[in-house]
């Protein structure tokens, strides 16, 4: 599949599945992901991290979920499901932060007292489904991951990208950046 095809598939997904409600948040899935990418751009993040922020929740889109993911609960698995779907087009610099963005939340809940307190009610609720704050060996294991820092950055944009007053740029704003990252 060419880079243009990949961008077209993703644009279609944002327009269709993206219109759905985002887990009890006041923005749609698409608006949430576009806001996350906008925040990454505002922080002058490298292209791969802007793309990771834009695509971090594609695991919530129906096509990205396999039977296995559905069996194990979509919420705990959406990072992994999204990353493996995206791997058909993108390298680990994009897919790994996507895969690890739920782990990054569990890590930050364990290591930053203020982080948990600032989470949205829906995000506190899903934390339980996702395994709660990390403990013991899990913390060191996460820190050793080469994409841990990238995943934490994506996570912080993710948490801020739920503002119903913010109008993010359209998907087309990010198409050239996405095309430059497809392999
Ligand atoms: Fe998210």
SS-based class: mainly alpha
Mean pLDDT: 91
- At the fourth level of CATH, the homologous superfamily is Hypothetical protein af1432
Q: Would you state the CATH class?
A: Mainly Alpha
What is the element string, with H for helices and E for strands?
HHHHHHHHHHH
Helix proportion range:
55-70%
Counted up, domains total 1
Q: Which regions contain 5 or more consecutive residues with pLDDT less than 50?
A: none
Strand content: under 5%
Distinct ligands, ions and cofactors found in the model:
fe (iii) ion
CATH topology: Hypothetical protein af1432
Which radius of gyration do the C-alpha atoms yield? 15 Å
Largest sheet: none
Number of strands: 0
Through-space gap between termini = 10 Å
Number of helices: 11
CATH architecture title: Orthogonal Bundle
Shape: globular
Description:
The chain is mainly α. The protein has one domain: Hypothetical protein af1432. The protein contains 11 helices and no strands. Helix 2 packs antiparallel against helix 3 and helix 3 (47-55) packs across helix 6. The longest helix has 20 residues, at 92-111. The N and C termini lie close together (10 Å). The mean pLDDT is 91. The chain binds fe (iii) ion. The site of fe (iii) ion (FE) has 4 residues, from loops.
